[in-house]
Amino acid sequence: MGRPYTPDMLAERWGVSGETVRHLIRSGKLPAFRVGRMLRITHDTVEAYECGIIGSAVSKDDSSSSGTTTMEADGVIALRHTRQRKPSVKRVT
To answer: 82 pairs with which residues across the strands?
Structure first.
């Protein structure tokens, strides 16, 4: 098992843009995990996605949860919740 892919590395492998890969992650179709602020995708997840095991059978576009979905080694899918960002308010001085 090698190092996890970055969205840009995976984009190069698939011949698409990095933004396309990030869109798949945001929409829940491609499980990923975070290392700080950086997104990573495991080799197992990439192989499962390429084989059509994940991402094609059920769309998760209607999901109301916020966070990142990850597929762990034993096939368990975990959701890491993150706080939703609130718009910043500029103070007038």
So the answer is: none
Q: Are 39 and 26 in contact (CB under 8 A)?
A: no
- On whether residue 45 sits in a domain, the answer given is yes
pTM: 0.56
Indicate the number of domains in the chain. Answer: 1
Q: What is the pLDDT along the chain (93 residues), one digit of tens a residue?
A: 688 999 999 999 999 999 999 999 999 899 999 988 899 999 999 998 888 877 554 444 444 444 555 555 555 555 555 556 666 677 776
What are the angstrom distances between the C-alpha of 70 and each of 15, 17, 88?
A: 23, 22, 29
Q: What is the 3-state secondary structure (H, E, C) of 52-68?
A: CCCCCCCCCCCCCCCEE
Give the residue numbers spanning the domain of 31: 7-81
